[in-house]
Design goal:
It is built from 8 helices and 7 strands, in the order E-H-E-H-E-H-E-H-E-H-E-H-H-H-E. With 259 residues, it is α/β, with parallel strands linked by helices. Keywords: Oxidoreductase.
């Protein structure tokens, strides 16, 4: 049997890059999608993968990518819809353009990718893993576009699972909490400057102080969960949301002061 083919959006950094390394280490052929060529090609060189720069919210570009993947590799066994970002500000502070951008980067990327991948995934009995966020379950302050977009990804996951299960396609979502990615590092740097604290590490310590495991995740820890959901070990799991946040979502906020 040919090695499985896994398509990963946002594959050049963070969770996407760690996921590519995990699949490649187990013999999969990885296809890396994203808008920035340099990080994609760096991960492709490391994993023996195929780097295909594209805007995954663009239907024409995305369909062309899948046509090339099928032509060169012959199949698609899993899609990891990991691209995302954008969406800071309260509702009143968010412009129409910023709102549209938050949906394009967080929701349209996954929708357009899934639509393009479904025929190949149905043919292989494959699966989709959608990377949402803890913000897909709860609301943080001043991130309206991001929060609503990540919530929408869970609806997309359930709709796909409901409609395509009979075609043999499984679809699940992962909701990470804080993960040490380049994007999170930038957020911690900004937080440290605004709060007047010592730096990035102190920022991470503050935002995870009430997390039961007491730390942020490493990208490889999220990649392991994605790998499980895409594997035959999860063959009867579909439409599910798996929270990977060190236990943050179980904390009862009103009891923190007396804990």
């Amino acid at each position: 049997m040919d090695s499985p083919v896994v398509v990963i959006s946002g594959g050049g950094t963070g969770i996407g890059a760690a996921t590519a390394r995990r699949f490649a280490a187990e013999g999969a052929r990885v296809v890396l999608l994203g808008r920035r060529r340099e990080p994609l090609e760096a991960v492709a060189a490391e994993t023996g993968g195929l780097a295909l720069p594209c805007d995954t919210a663009d239907r024409g570009q995305t369909e062309a990518v899948f046509a090339r993947v099928l032509d060169e590799l012959g199949r698609v066994d899993a899609l990891v819809a990991n691209a995302g970002g954008h969406g800071t500000g309260t509702v009143a502070d968010t412009s129409d353009e910023e709102w549209d951008l938050s949906f394009r980067t967080n929701v349209s990327t996954a929708f357009v990718l899934a639509r393009a991948a479904l025929p190949a995934l149905a043919a292989s009995g494959g699966s989709i893993v959608v990377v949402s966020s803890l913000a897909g379950l709860f609301a943080g302050p001043g991130v309206a576009g991001y929060t609503v977009g990540k919530h929408a990804l869970l609806g997309l996951t359930r709709s796909l699972a409901r409609d395509y299960g009979r075609s043999g396609v499984r679809v699940n979502a992962v909701c990470p909490g804080w993960v040490r990615t380049p994007m999170a590092d930038e957020e911690m740097d900004d937080f440290a400057r605004q709060a007047g604290i010592g730096g990035r590490e102190e920022g991470y310590a503050i935002v995870t102080k009430d997390v039961p495991l007491g730390r942020a995740a490493e990208p490889e820890e999220i990649a392991s969960v994605i790998r499980f959901l895409a594997s035959r070990d999860a063959s009867y799991v579909t439409g599910s949301t798996l929270v990977v946040d060190g236990g943050a979502h179980i904390v009862d906020l009103p009891t923190i002061a007396v804990g």
